[in-house]
Structures are given as C-alpha cells and as structure tokens.
Amino acid sequence: MKRVLIISTSIRSGSNSEILAHEFERGAKDSGNEVIFISLKDKKINFCRGCLACQKLGKCVIDDDANAITEEMEKADVIVWVTPIYYYEMSGQMKTMIDRANSLYAKSYNFKEVYLLTVAAEDEEFVPKRAISGVQGWVDCFEGVTLKETLFVGGVDAPNTIKNNEKLLKAYELGGNV
After folding, report:
1. Measured between alpha carbons, how far apart are the two ends of the chain, in Å?
2. CATH number of 3-176, picked from 3.30.420.10, 1.10.1200.10, 3.40.50.1360, 3.40.50.360
C-alpha cells in the first residue's frame, strides 16, 4: 500500500481536470492505496517571496494553506499533479504551489514517484510539453524521484466535457498501478 497524494490545481467547478483526477483516485483506492485528495480550488496560497527561510525553518514563513499541503507532500509516497493547460503551460496556481513547497529540498521526503495529468481545449500532441518540462524540472531537483508517467486529454474545454472520454479509463488504470 502506498500513500498517494493527488493535487488538483483547477479552480473551476466541474472542471475536466478534476474529473480526471477523481478517476485516478478511484483506481488508486480500488487497488488498496491510501489516497489524499487536495483541491487548490478554495485554498489560499500566496506567492513565494524567495527569502529561503524555509530551508532553515523547515516550513514557509507565509501563513497560508501551502504549508499544510507541503506537509502532505512530504509524507506521500506518490504525488499526482493534475492541471488544466493554460497557454500551453501548467496552471499558475500549480506553479505557485510548486514554488511554495521549496522547504521540501531540505527535508527527508518520502515521495519517489510523480505523475502529471493534464487537460486542454487543444488536442495536438505538443500541447502539454511545457507543463511536462516544468514538472520534470521540479522532479530533477529531488534525488531518487522520477516522473513516472504523464497523461494528456485534449479536446475538452467547457466544464464536464471529459465525461465518457476513453482516457478516463487510462487515468483509472494509472491509479490502479501506482
């Protein structure tokens, strides 16, 4: 059994990326894993100040929801980032959360595997490339951690348009195989 943390970064209700995230969650739970699901939708997460105090304190000096999320990241065996693609990149709230988790570098984190699930209105193969590159850059900063797999679902724009998409089954299977 693994401790799987899913971080859904869309702030839209009924978002396609959150539906995708819940399919991964369902697969992971059905396989007997412990799953923690966090949505950034209602979280208060300020921008990193770049002060690096977190490296000494073990947590950020800014008192908002990012510290509790970072604590969950530290305890997880698997981290799953889920984001809509905006302007061919991860969502701003996802990037902000990644920046705010800077205290993890100085800690003994558990996670060894990272997944990235993305959705976009555009359907071309190149659409998620920058988001994948950004997450790979983050993963490369942690010893022994790998970007295990990515899943892109294109052609979904309005809320709930991902319903009945064949890639929901792929998300379920990915979750079941963590």
Report:
1. 9
2. 3.40.50.360
Give the integer Cα–Cα distance in Å for 123 and 119.
9
Res 26: pLDDT: 98
Predicted TM-score of the model (pTM):
0.97
Q: How far apart are CA 115 and CA 70, in angstroms?
A: 17
Residue numbers of the chain with a pLDDT score lower than 70: none
Q: Cα–Cα distance between 82 and 6 in angstroms, integer?
A: 7
Q: How far apart are CA 101 and CA 24, in angstroms?
A: 23
SS3 156: coil
